[in-house]
Write a structure and sequence with these properties.
The chain is an all-alpha fold. It has five helices and no strands. Helix 2 packs across helix 5 and helix 3 runs antiparallel to helix 4. The longest helix has 23 residues. The N and C termini lie far apart (49 Å).
Amino acid sequence: MKLSLLFLFTLLLPLTTTQAPPPRNDLTCSLCKTVMELLDQYITDTTNEEAIADALKEICALLPAPLDAECDAMISEYTDDIIELLVNEYLSPQQVCDELTLCP
């Protein structure tokens, strides 16, 4: 009996933990855009840019040779461009929030 109750519970658990889709209204849209704008400011702060560069270098260190050296060269050359693209090209607050379906 205990085993069958446990089995039934494990079958029903995913049904009770599913999340409802995020609401799409002006409040969620405004909040999302504000958070994305703050993230934009955070990423472009010079101390945080250095932290991003360090994180990219750590990722390169995980790669096997000779890819690690190629990755290091790429990061050294393009870190500023990568951050610029993330911030100015691909991190438009409206685009991000639209993609997350948080704006009506």
